Amino acid sequence: MRLWVSLVVVMLVLGCGRVPPRPANVPAESFFVGKRKDGVFVVIGARDGLGWRVKIFGRDGALKREGAYVLRGMARAEVVPDEVLSFDGEALHLRDGTLLIPRR
Fold it and tell me: Which of 1, 38, 45, 68 is most exposed, with minimal Cβ within 10 Å?
């Protein structure tokens, strides 16, 4: 019984960390950010002046945000998907504390 419970717990933990399937309308170049249940798919496109064109899709494929995003924090020439940790509904949070925020 103990082995069974341990096995179920391990399977749940491993399953929680997986990226959900990408909806058909979400571009293939997107990457997943956040936890499986509340994360988003992000596309960081071409440079746009001082920032980048960004599209953010929900897990259901609905477009949540789109537009020009700029950095708040350290300057950088590019934003690499591995650096993006989370999305708070408006800004993308990067590993070094920098934010990628909508240009106003």
Answer: 1
50 closest CA partner among 74, 73, 77: 77
Tokens found for residue 52? 């980048």
Tens digit of each residue's pLDDT (9 = 90 or more) over 54-71:
999 999 999 999 999 999
Calpha distance 83→96 (Å, rounded): 8
Q: Is 71 exposed, middle or buried (0-12, 13-18, 19+ CB in 10 A)?
A: middle
Model-wide pTM > 0.85: no
Between β-strands 99-102 and 92-94, what pairing exists: parallel, antiparallel or unpaired?
antiparallel
Task: Annotate the chain with three-state secondary structure.
Answer: CHHHHHHHHHHHHHHHCCCCCCCCCCCCCCEEECCCCCCEEEEEEEEECCEEEEEEECCCCCEEEEEEEEEECCCCCCCCHHHEEEECCCCEEECCCCEEEECC
Q: Which of 66, 60, 22 lies closest to 44, judged by CA?
A: 66
